[in-house]
Amino acid sequence: MYEDRIKPRSLWSKVVTPEEAALHIRDGMTVGMSGFTRAGEAKAVPLALAERGRREPLKITLLTGASLGNDLDKTLAEANVLARRLPFQSDPALRKRINAGEVMFVDQHLSETVEMLRSRQLGPVDVAIVEAVMIKEDGSIVPTTSVGNSATFAMLAEKVIVEINLTLSPVMEGLHDIYIPTRRPFRGPIPITRPDDRVGVPSIAIDPSRIAAIVITAKEDSCAAIQPPDAETKLIAGHLTEFLTNEVRRGRLGSSLAPLQAGIGSIANAVLHGFLDTDFHDLTMYSEVLQDSTFDLFDAGKMVFASGSSITLSPERHDQVLHDIGRYKSRLVLRPQEISNHPEVIRRLGLIAINTALEADIYGNVNSTHVAGSQMMNGIGGSGDFARNAYLSVFVTKSTAKGGAISSIVPFATHVDHCEHDVDLIVTEQGLADLRGLAPRERAAVVIDTCVHPEYRDLLRDYYRDAERTVGGQTPHRLDRAFALHLAYQTHGDMRRAAEVPEAAAE
Amino acid sequence: MYEDRIKPRSLWSKVVTPEEAALHIRDGMTVGMSGFTRAGEAKAVPLALAERGRREPLKITLLTGASLGNDLDKTLAEANVLARRLPFQSDPALRKRINAGEVMFVDQHLSETVEMLRSRQLGPVDVAIVEAVMIKEDGSIVPTTSVGNSATFAMLAEKVIVEINLTLSPVMEGLHDIYIPTRRPFRGPIPITRPDDRVGVPSIAIDPSRIAAIVITAKEDSCAAIQPPDAETKLIAGHLTEFLTNEVRRGRLGSSLAPLQAGIGSIANAVLHGFLDTDFHDLTMYSEVLQDSTFDLFDAGKMVFASGSSITLSPERHDQVLHDIGRYKSRLVLRPQEISNHPEVIRRLGLIAINTALEADIYGNVNSTHVAGSQMMNGIGGSGDFARNAYLSVFVTKSTAKGGAISSIVPFATHVDHCEHDVDLIVTEQGLADLRGLAPRERAAVVIDTCVHPEYRDLLRDYYRDAERTVGGQTPHRLDRAFALHLAYQTHGDMRRAAEVPEAAAE
Ligand SMILES: CC(C)(COP(=O)(O)OP(=O)(O)OC[C@H]1O[C@@H](n2cnc3c(N)ncnc32)[C@H](O)[C@@H]1OP(=O)(O)O)[C@@H](O)C(=O)NCCC(=O)NCCS
Ligand SMILES: CC(C)(COP(=O)(O)OP(=O)(O)OC[C@H]1O[C@@H](n2cnc3c(N)ncnc32)[C@H](O)[C@@H]1OP(=O)(O)O)[C@@H](O)C(=O)NCCC(=O)NCCS
Q1: Is the pLDDT of residue A505 over 70?
Q2: pLDDT of amino acid B351
Q3: Cα–Cα distance between B94 and B85 in angstroms, integer?
Q4: Which pTM was predicted?
Q5: Distance from C-alpha of A341 to C-alpha of A307, rounded to nearest angstrom
Q6: B382 marked among binding-site residues
Q7: Which atom of ligand 1 sits closest to the CA of residue A267?
Q8: Whose CA is nearest to atom 28 of ligand 1?
Q9: For chain B, what is the domain count?
């Protein structure tokens, strides 16, 4: 049964149990695992590792592409195996340990981790664990539903463990495009000039002698945990598609727009879903994770090509797409996240980038990561890679959270992942703020008028007017009241009670 | 006298007075002017414009490369000519009007302004005013001591006014490399792979029929207003060169390091000056403004090539370099700021980027622009272009300002231009914090131990410990005390009195 999955016969002897493979990983090591937005993670060895972690002292630094599926981050965290974790995660159990200071989480721009590894500013990587559909004659590895950082992990690691996943069809060969920038100072341009350019090779080339173990698995990716579009996300999608329709009318964009990027999560998926109800056509994506909406747009004949680093689908879509992958293959490419998120390519192609904010301030600075400035949600992910270099950088969010007790638009963002310079549009179900070419005072007026929930409009208008009158400046702020809404939520469970929070200034 | 400066005889009739040329500019227009870090600005027409502004209603949107010399921003601001100003300035009189809300200042990443103009997200540009050493036979324009955004302004504007500056030698021809990225979606890679690559043409090609007026001037650039290195900036330079020496020793860098970028201002200049006292050799720069330190490194035989967008020198250096420009020409290139600051090239070359912070917080988020969160100093300039994509992103600052009454390291930055992900090292005269690969809690410990002035160390340590204990999280913050130092400065004129500031929370 290995013949068609492990072509080099010399490697058959490397097939071992997950437990045996996990023995290559020792206390204190740095391990690079495949897996990006719950797609394509190694499924068996990490569990064996967790099992060992429950019995013996075993702490590792875990690098991945992005988040892992199948509750692996939870399992590893609960087994106390994780000393350090980078560059992204989205698991509630791990998040809890990170916020308790038990796991050191190094949140990074997703395009940058491998730059730091290659230049030895991070690392070295001791062991790489990569999920694959097959190992080819030349020993090269064909990844599965994500590429993430797997190629660089496999190239840099001292030892490589390959997990062959039998649930995935060998037809996936050819889906991936592995391109690694050459070493500085001899690095040349990345030759991608269109989303559908293939510039690399279809598998991860490594010296087969570094393959230390091979494990056979038959477990599927977990499905996406996203919510279907609701009334509010539909409104957000509507505002954005209306805006884009106007841009087309003004001649700033053609009716195929520009290559689209859409962030992780329910809102971004819902917004992309909204493109189904438009006249745009021949759309393309140059994105990170491809969610249901991408395939809905393919099936509706609206999308012609999508480039990403992973495919993460709902239960409804999962089997259909993966069993039918041959049908989509010519319209898809999966790239290393360094390339899907590369500033060079993003800037060149001129993307429309749609990412989600946890909160934005009235001037358009965006917090995508930290609840109340301290508690990590998931991580910055690729949002910075895309927002900084996009042709049009859009942030979407519902105007309130927690049943209205939190306004997503606040006077002062409690953490800034994306500064005002990187935010062109903010869209909530209330409306769309077009901030291009505006100064901060103008931005505040537009954001408050269009994006804020009516229940918070007076509160924010009062803050702005007071700051403008008493402090002034390019970006008027009252430092003694900047966090009054957040403090009201902390104290009273409701930001609407901000007026009850005393000022901080000593008078 | 025009023969060698205005080669096309057909253009001689366009030579007019500054006042006549200024008549092309009417109320409400958008004007793009040459000028970058006080170098190469048009010197006569803006003054005529200001003169008219004092007599008649005249408000314009002024776009430049960056800051203007010869007090032009002051003169235009005081004549009330400026309705809007972008993307950078550094003039105290204009700053005052910006902070009073009288001039709308759109602070932008310096590489991005022309992207927005070309895609018509900003603009259109009615008139461009460009300083030149000559107009060539083909009507193309040879710029002077800066390129900035001049090429794109001249290409996009309906009318072009050229100021021929007779104080500058025609020998400057060949110093510039004008490259404009092709239009999306047909854009190709920018083919620069080394700081000394020339990829464009030496002059700005425009249809001569769009040259509406030519003005002859004989005024020099103003000199740089920077302070010479002092005891503290020498310590900062020492910490950084020691760190880099160790990186070389560890094999992470060669003894020519990587191409250097150094920001504007006294501190960055002093730091670069510190490279004179090292064993590094064959240094190169891929930077924005080239200051005295670049030429000192040339003369000392330490630097082999420097790429920038402008040359701004002290009174001592100014005449020598400009009169001797032929001697330096083969080791210099001036590029459009879009290219000197382009994320694509910065990332490819892997720069060591050295920029200055106004303040940094204990987690390494940097404020380069807003005093106390509200008052604009200069603007983000190119610091974001460089910091985000550098191989090594360094921020330097003295640990205190205003005689010790302000700590430059604070609990929470009052404005975030550079998020923690874009800041690898923070260096003050106290020491150097190497933040690479650290989680926020670890970053705080290192920053407090190494960078903070001893008078503030306990204050910051207390803040951090209290936040960690009472709030926790990935990035522990007490929102009720986050700005206590700033409020103490506002109330008592001294951040050291932060303990006297009551908390903001409603208990
Ligand atoms: C920001 C982000 C968390 C939003 O996720 P989402 O699923 O689309 O958005 P939701 O509105 O469902 O919010 C998720 C949770 O945050 C909560 N939330 C939203 N805004 C909040 C706020 N201002 N304050 C506190 N909590 C908030 C929601 O209530 C919800 O909580 P729950 O899980 O307990 O129900 C997510 O997009 C993210 O992690 N982004 C950063 C990484 C990134 O952008 N990558 C993009 C490149 S792929
Ligand atoms: C940050 C910046 C203002 C520092 O300039 P500098 O001349 O090197 O630094 P200085 O320490 O002399 O500070 C300049 C002024 O800010 C004041 N200052 C410094 N830190 C301060 C702080 N934390 N709070 C308030 N004021 C502060 C200084 O006291 C000084 O004031 P003065 O002019 O009244 O004497 C300048 O580098 C800048 O504008 N940077 C943003 C743009 C940029 O980085 N471009 C780089 C790419 S070219």
Answers
A1: no
A2: 98
A3: 10
A4: 0.97
A5: 11
A6: yes
A7: 8
A8: A401
A9: 2
- Asked if B193 and B236 sit in the same domain, the reply is no
Quick check: CB of B358 below 6 Å from ligand 2?
A: yes
Using CA atoms, how far residue A302 sits from A111, A177, A322, A421, B304, in Å, is 29, 24, 20, 31, 53
**Same structural domain, A147 and A239:** no
Q: How does pLDDT run across B308-335, given as a tens digit for each residue?
A: 999 999 998 999 999 899 999 999 999 9
| A·B CB contacts under 8 A | 274
SS3 A347: helix
Rounded Cα distance between A221 and A144, Å, is 10
State yes or no: B389 annotated in a binding site: no
**B1, part of any domain:** no
Answer yes or no: do B288 and B310 share one domain. yes
B344 with B366, same domain?
Answer: yes
Two tokens at B255? 């003894």
What H or E segment, with its residue span, contains residue B353?
A: strand B352-356
Q: Which helix (H) or strand (E) holds B428?
A: strand B425-428
User: Considering all CA atoms of chain A, what is the largest pairwise distance in Å, rounded to the nearest integer?
Assistant: 80
Q: Do A164 and A246 fall within a single domain?
A: no
Residues whose CB falls within 8 Å of the CB of residue A140, separated by 6 or more in sequence, listed in order = A201, A203, A204, A205, A206
Beta strand spans in A337-475 (E): 352-356, 359-361, 366-367, 370-371, 375-376, 392-396, 400-401, 406-407, 409-410, 425-428, 431-434
Active site residues of A: 288
Q: Is residue A401 part of a domain?
A: yes
* Residue (of B155, B124, B105, B127) closest to B58 by Cα position: B127
A416 lies in a domain? yes
Query: What is the C-alpha to C-alpha distance for residues A84 and A357, in angstroms, rounded to an integer?
Result: 26
Residue B143 sits in the same domain as residue B168: yes
Element (H, E) at B376: strand B375-376
Q: Which of A160, A188, A217 is the last residue in one of the domains?
A: A217
Nearest to A348 among B105, B187, B194 (CB): B187
Pairing of strands A211-217, A159-165: parallel
Is B255 found in the same domain as B198? Answer: no
Nearest to B340 by CA among B111, B151, B153: B111
The model's pLDDT over A470-485, given as tens digits with 9 standing for 90+, comes to 999 999 999 999 999 9
* CATH code, A464: 3.40.1080.10
Selection from A435, A433, A428 nearest residue A454 by Cα: A428
ipTM (interface predicted TM) = 0.97
Q: A342 and A109 in contact (C-beta within 8 Å)?
A: no
The answer to whether B302 is a known ligand-binding residue is no
Domain housing B241 = 231-476
Helix orientation angle between A484-492 and A454-470, rounded to the nearest 10 degrees: 130
For chain B, the residue count is 507
Model confidence over B213-268: pLDDT tens digits? 999 999 999 998 788 889 999 999 999 999 999 999 999 999 999 999 999 888 99
Question: Per this entry, what is the length of chain A?
Answer: 507
Helix (H, G, I), strand (E, B) or coil at B462: helix
Where is pLDDT greater, at B310 or B501? B310
C-beta of B383 in contact with ligand 2 (< 6 A): yes
Per-residue model confidence as pLDDT tens digits over A190-243: 999 999 999 999 999 999 999 999 999 999 999 987 888 899 999 999 999 999
What's the token pair of residue B303?
């630097």
Residue A327 lies in a domain: yes
Q: What's at A328, amino acid-wise? A: Y
- Range list of β-strands (E), A57-172: 60-63, 82-86, 104-105, 127-135, 141-143, 159-165
Are A169 and A249 found together in one domain? Answer: no
Q: Is the peptide bond before A124 cis (omega within 30 degrees of 0)?
A: yes
Mutation to test the B interface, candidates A368, A479, A497, most B Cβ within 10 Å: A479
Neighbouring CB atoms inside 10 A of B85's CB total: 26
Q: Which of B188, B344, B391 sits opposite A119 (nearest CB)?
A: B391
